[in-house]
Amino acid sequence: MKCFYHPDKDGVGICQQCGKSACRDCIEDIGGAMLCNSCLAREATAQEELAQAEEQRQVLELDNLRRQASRRIRWSYIVAAVAAVFYSGFAFMAASEKVALAVPWFLLVFGGPYVIWSIYWGLVWCWPKWRRFVRSFRRGLSGWILIARPFIWLMLLIFYLTLYFSIPLAAAVYYGVFGGGVYQFRKHLRLASGQEASSSTPASRRRNRIIAAAVAVVLLLLFLLNAWQVYRQFTGRLAPSKNSAASLGYISDDAHVLDAGTTATLNQLCAEASETSNTQISTYTLAKLDGRNIQGLAQGLLQRRSGELGGKRNVVIVLAPNDRAWRIEFGSGFGSTATNETVQDIGNGARPSLRAGNYGGALLIMVRGVVATLEKEPQGNAGVAPGLQSSPSSPDFPNSPASNPDSKPVASANKSAMVFDPPSNVRTAPSAASGILCTVTTKTPISILGPEGDWYKTDTCSGKLGYIHRSQVRFRN
Asked: Which portions of the chain are predicted below pLDDT 70?
């Protein structure tokens, strides 16, 4: 048999691929298979084409991964920016509304966006894995569905409704927040720059572990700081000092209208009333009534305070600045001392400060008025006389019903009165918004030149004419 390619030569074998006879120069033994040079060339060309196709596929896959990584990085920036705007706006609104935050503002502004950003990268990591697991789980149950279809469908429904999203979200939170988010971000940065995800060196892996550990330590420290603040807050509320104002419950400023000086003065006045007249004066400022009736609210607070402090008489003062309402409730044991006229007079004295928006000053006037009422009561006083006077909801805190003019003490000219609860301000005009002429710091008699509304003229400030509020003085018999 002659060679197909060289007819003048004898063939030594037959190509197993094309079946042609070939001489010794035209055929080769490739792993026990005899192949001619022509088939070998075609095989080499096919292998080269396959290699080129695989190379092109890898290039396209890397390009797709690069575009996907760039897209995910852009979305992570968008998620972080939106979270930063949201948390910063929330912190700013809370600060402007004077709302106490459960966490420090810096932890909210910086930690909140980081947590949301990390959860995003955690979902990028765990969501594809979770979907592959769910698909394999469904394939494993496909045979059982034919046997117990209603039960299996019910299980799948419960699974999808309860666990399909909650499990990957929980995994994303823990993985992303404690360093996994940073790792995924750096991995996608490498992909976006054209590098392979697995091309990290031992040094880079060590750096990633250090970064993840640093993030975890910072988060742990912030958590411990916040836990310490919460612990101090709750232990300060639940187990305060026995003699502190918080344990006695003088002030509850939910509306955040009292400054430190006013709070200290109120605590002092209430503590003195508790010691001298066995009366607990509790003041409450409310941010909103939310449709509640201030009378029922004040009476409920009075009953609660009476139950907590059974051995003391109780007076409750409630002020809702945003709802333009106030209320004073006297408990039992005041006899004829605490009447509607008494409460009306106290409210009339506080009205200028309420209209001026000076709610701390209004509370001081109310508390001093209550203290003055307690000092006027005779010894051995007993009985029940609730004070049921409050202002209606209106822009300028008017009193309703109208106060009784006959219930107000009228001072004649050049009559002496005692400043009984210093410090007391003498102002330049009969208004709480006017300037302070001087301050009487001791219990001292002053000369009263005449009344003017709820104020009395006096020349106690080195002979200068001024005005002192009627709740601050007591006339001598």
From this structure: 94-106, 137-153, 155-157, 159-161, 196-201, 204-205, 208-209, 211-212, 215-216, 219, 222-223, 225-249, 307-311, 378-414, 433, 476-477
Provide CATH 2.30.30.40 ranges for the chain: 409-477
* Sequential DSSP letters for 445-470: EEEEEEEETTEEEEEEETTEEEEEEG
**CATH architecture assigned to 245-408:** Roll (3.10)
The CATH superfamily holding the domain 409-477 is SH3 Domains (2.30.30.40)
DSSP, res 435: P
Closest CA to 34 of 46, 50, 21: 21
Q: How far apart are CA 417 and CA 138, in angstroms?
A: 91
Determine if the peptide bond prior to 423 is cis (ω within 30°).
yes
- pTM higher than 0.85: no
Name 284's Cβ contacts closer than 8 Å, sequence gap at least 6.
252, 254, 301, 316, 317, 318, 319
Residue labelled with tokens 């469904």: 138
Number of CB atoms found within 10 A of residue 72's CB: 18
pLDDT digits (tens, 9 = 90+) for 460-477: 888 788 888 887 888 765
> What per-residue confidence (pLDDT) applies to 62?
82
Q: Where in the chain is the domain with CATH 3.10.310.50?
A: 245-408
DSSP string for residues in 31-67? TTEEEEHHHHHHHHHHHHHHHHHHHHHHHHHHHHHHH
Burial classification of residue 405, based on how many CB atoms lie within 10 Å of its CB (0-12 exposed, 13-18 middle, 19 or more buried): exposed
C-alpha dihedral (413, 416, 422, 426), degrees to nearest 10: 20
